[in-house]
């Protein structure tokens, strides 16, 4: 699939020069920082040296005082508290954080996660019934609840208060909870709006610790869970999230939590754990519990205190993930065939597919896989409890949540973010929804947004890539949305050796730049087509990232290819 190369606008030259001089870095590094709104010495100091002391006061969040006071009152009264969370990574880490922390200081406690297949997303009737039978009078809802108006009202009639800790977009009406913690709600002046569900839960506990004037050191031990949620939920790694992620990774690399240590071993992770390890190693396995069976297994793993128990539970999640991958592959093939065989669908601006036999737990993954082939907003639906239910994924720059909201008259339930959402509707309404969603997308999406783009930070010469350059650049980590690993472009490159094709699909080349003796190894995963298109003595441009390769005790810098274009002679 052809990609658009988008070279970011260069910041003001005077700002770049002043920053370069102030912190003693090259102009290219100063450009990277200025693109991230780091334009002064003090900003750079805060960026390169994250501090927990710079976390925002939790009481700046609307309703935080009500939430903290209600939690303290519940503990004083010895009320039974139910910690309630979603079944994805953000939800299970949220439950593990809240339950794990509170159980150290309070015993009248329980947790609940809905079954994806029998209850669906969020607050459920079965969950309220469980709370009632267990005598719970306070439910702390994590990563869900912001749209559960009717169910929270029913719970209230039964004498159950709710503290909602959510980060999804609120609807027109808020639920009648005792307190709602959500930076995105109207009237909330909290300075940072991009917390994940686990992050909001962390802020509640931070407020609790401040109010009771103890337990702060114990709370820091749970930042590993917050880091996993931030990475897995693909929220921006900026501002407060970047601080939480930085310290969460430090906790993660201490290996203190048996469940995560077991997952790292089972995923074959070696060396320092990074954001990429979380996204591709931890997250799929934690998610697999809720996709294939029940997410309670993930919480049990994250709360495990014995290594033997952790490895047993981790092995179970690993097996779930293996099964998930097999089903995911089969359903993806079926979905792509449905698009290819339908002339109208193959030429559409969106994809909405429904098949009643598809596994509900993997529809979101399949939507993402379809976007890799057909780059456009995609919804994959299956049958569950006599309803069509599924997941939506979007392309960069298009708000799929708003497009779904425009079709809300055909839906029974929906919620989510700009780039991902969930929805439920009558099976009879699927054809009408397909038509209306396509009309909505077609009327608002531009042709540019239907072509995947590569954002390039700067064009540089290969000679600028030095050990010092790379060392400073790596200190900009942790990388993620809003603070992506820098992407560069270089021109007038040529092959300095014969190209290689590894395992018949991965490209390995050595490149030099015209007029420069520096040679770099460059790798392009799943790029066999470039093996034939690149020829000796034919110059080309390349977009890439820079990474360190450690092998047999030797360390070298290598280029990770994102795209290549042969230059016009």
In brief, what are we looking at here?
The chain is α/β, with parallel strands linked by helices and 569 residues long. The chain has 21 helices and 19 strands. The protein starts with a strand and ends with a strand.
Question: How would you describe this structure to a colleague?
Answer:
By secondary structure, the protein is an alpha/beta fold. 42% of the residues lie in helices and 20% in strands. Among the domains are: 4-9 and 454-566, OB fold (Dihydrolipoamide Acetyltransferase, E2P), CATH 2.40.50; 58-215, inorganic pyrophosphatase (n-terminal core), CATH 3.90.1640; 342-450, Diaminopimelate Epimerase, Chain A, domain 1, CATH 3.10.310.30. It has a five-stranded parallel beta sheet with strand order 3-2-4-5-6, sandwiched between helices. Strands 7-8-9-11-10 form a five-stranded mixed beta sheet, with helices on both faces. A hairpin with a 5-residue loop joins strand 16 (506-513) and strand 17 (519-524). The longest helix is centred in the middle third of the chain and has 34 residues, at 307-340. It starts with a strand and ends with a strand.
Keywords:
569 residues, alpha/beta, OB fold (Dihydrolipoamide Acetyltransferase, E2P), inorganic pyrophosphatase (n-terminal core), Diaminopimelate Epimerase, Chain A, domain 1, five-stranded parallel beta sheet, five-stranded mixed beta sheet, 19 strands, 42% helix, 20% strand
